[in-house]
Fold:
Amino acid sequence: MDGRPIGVFDSGLGGLTVVRQLLRRLPGENIVYFGDTGRVPYGNRSRKILHKYARQDCSFLRSKGVKLIIAACGTVSSVVPRVLEEQPVPAFGVVKPAAAAAVRATRSGRIGVLGTSATIHAGAFRRCLLQLNPQVQVFEKECPLFVALVENGWIGREDEVTRLTARRYLEPLREQGVDTLILGCTHFPLLTDIIADIMGGGVTLIDSGQAAADACVERLAQDNTFAPPGNSGRCHFYVSDQPEGFSKIAGMFLGQAIGEHLHTVDLELPAPMAGEDDETG
Ligand code: DGL
Structure:
């Protein structure tokens, strides 16, 4: 048993797709979430910058005494996975869990991958899918505008601008006849309704956030590090800028107000080490 929190980070709101699943599946776990809203988007950054951001994000979460880190960010998971391997606590991203779920789901072997530009150029999903099953065919599409649409809260099923953008991005993949589509950026599951409408009922959508949450449950079981029974999980959210916008959309998405548990941090300043504040338990 291990009562320390699970750490989750992303460039902004996308990683909440992991948090939402963790809250459902592991209500007894404490969670610390960091959304780098001051530096979003990550998806068009260079490897060098992403390396720096990912290291800072992980070190901030470690300063909160986390037992495990989830890079709930397809971009970090694809471009700088080494940063995760270097962590002194278990740490993983979304690529392997989502690729494994896609390989299990596909019947035709035609798998689509949506991601940020950096993710698609890194090719990590493609490599991982082909490693798991060399027979599959992979069709990739970078969808950078989706991140901005989500961060601005344009996530309603009827939103015309989002629908139009999605049609433009998704049409080629529909024509390729994929039967499984990985939402390889954690922001994209917030647009599931629109993506599903355009792709049609025959296409299985793989939510990379959900896949990472499943991998987390497996890892805690394997290491016997679930929170002690009877623990009522607490969730603390940290952002690097614009807490109001984050709070509004996060509250809508998670179905609960997060205002009093939301804090703003500056990652350029040295973080206090675990135990120097008592917010996360
Ligand atoms: N949600 C992140 C991802 O999964 C980052 C998106 C971005 O900031 O561009 O790639």
